[in-house]
Specification:
single chain, 67 residues, Helix Hairpins, 3 helices, 81% helix, elongated
Length: 67
Amino acid sequence: MTAAELKKLDASELQKKLADLKEELFNLRLQLAINQLENPMRISAVKKDIARVSTVLRQIELEAQKA
């Protein structure tokens, strides 16, 4: 998911997306630990998505403080 797509979402949708991504990362790490992970690159992709969502949430928070 790109940053432009994330900026179109509101804060509650972003919070839900963040929770879903964190759960997916947990499951991927669990699969990695028991050697059932088919695509190890998915872990880094999910981490980057988490960072993108967190950044957009922070931008929304800072904009709210300015207003």
